[in-house]
Write a structure and sequence with these properties.
Layout lengths: L1 E3 L10 H5 L5 E3 L4 E3 L19 E3 L5 H12 L15 H4 L12
The chain binds iron/sulfur cluster and FE3-S4 cluster.
Cofactor: [4Fe-4S] cluster; [3Fe-4S] cluster
Keywords: 3Fe-4S, 4Fe-4S, Electron transport, Iron, Iron-sulfur, Metal-binding, Repeat, Transport
Function: Ferredoxins are iron-sulfur proteins that transfer electrons in a wide variety of metabolic reactions.
Length: 104
Amino acid sequence: AYVVTDGCIRCKYQDCVEVCPVDCFYEGETMLVIHPDECIDCGVCEPECPADAIVSAADARADRWLPVNAKYAAIWPNITDKGPVPDDADAWKDVPGKEKFLFS
Ligand code: SF4
Ligand code: F3S
């Protein structure tokens, strides 16, 4: 599976949603996650993310975030169309360590 990491937090560009052939993205307040059991590993979303937030499960950056994706994909609503992008998304794009903003 592919995994959304903390780079998505407060950016939520949603370009990933536009290209996913199986609509396996789920939307939280500050970020999206991928349902690990629904993702077919096509990889097309990974280069689309302006925040470079999507990684393969084989990437070390996925270790922390795969369980987060699995947990919240089961709770948050499915998203299949791109909605409004946060006004300050670009300002947050390169901020490191955004996990503390996951729920704020
Ligand atoms: Fe969707 Fe493919 Fe990305 Fe998986 S790798 S989330 S199937 S676009
Ligand atoms: Fe997030 Fe990147 Fe998608 S910022 S919403 S993973 S395009």
